[in-house]
Amino acid sequence: MKSIKAIFYEIIWHFVTFKSINYGVINLCDCEINKEYKIKEFIEGPFAIKRRLFELGFLTNRKIKVIRKSLIKKTILVEIEGYTLSLRCTVAQIILVE
Predict the structure, then answer these.
(1) What are the Cα distances from residue 89, in Å, to 1, 6, 9, 13, 51?
(2) Structural contact between residues 11 and 38, judged by C-beta atoms closer than 8 angstroms
(3) Can you give the pLDDT of all 98 residues of the chain as single tens digits?
(4) Maximum Cα interatomic distance, the chain, rounded to a whole number of Å
(5) Nearest-CA neighbor of 74 among 93, 90, 94, 50?
(6) DSSP calls for the chain
(7) Which of 21, 34, 71, 95 is most buried when burial is the number of CB atoms within 10 A of its CB?
């Protein structure tokens, strides 16, 4: 008989594997300019960066719009909840949108 801990890890494993198959979901750095997207989820990344993004208003199901990208594609300018914000592409890759 399986222990409760083993069953719990098995359920979490199935949840993670099914959640990782996302069709039509791209990261924020690969988005087109002047098109509205909806934040779907956040991929694995440093907790401090995710916490700061949550504090800035990057929550799931919020609408986000990419306004401008730099020439060398290192930073992007986004609009979320009525204010504009500049993000590095390394940070923007954590955010998945559809």
Answers:
(1) 47, 38, 33, 29, 17
(2) no
(3) 667 777 777 766 555 554 445 567 898 988 999 999 999 988 888 888 889 999 999 999 999 999 999 988 789 999 998 999 999 998 998 899 99
(4) 59
(5) 90
(6) ---HHHHHHHHHHHHHHHHT--TT-EEGGGPPTT-EEEEEEE-S--HHHHHHHHHHT--TT-EEEEEEE-TTSSEEEEEETTEEEEEEHHHHTTEEE-
(7) 95
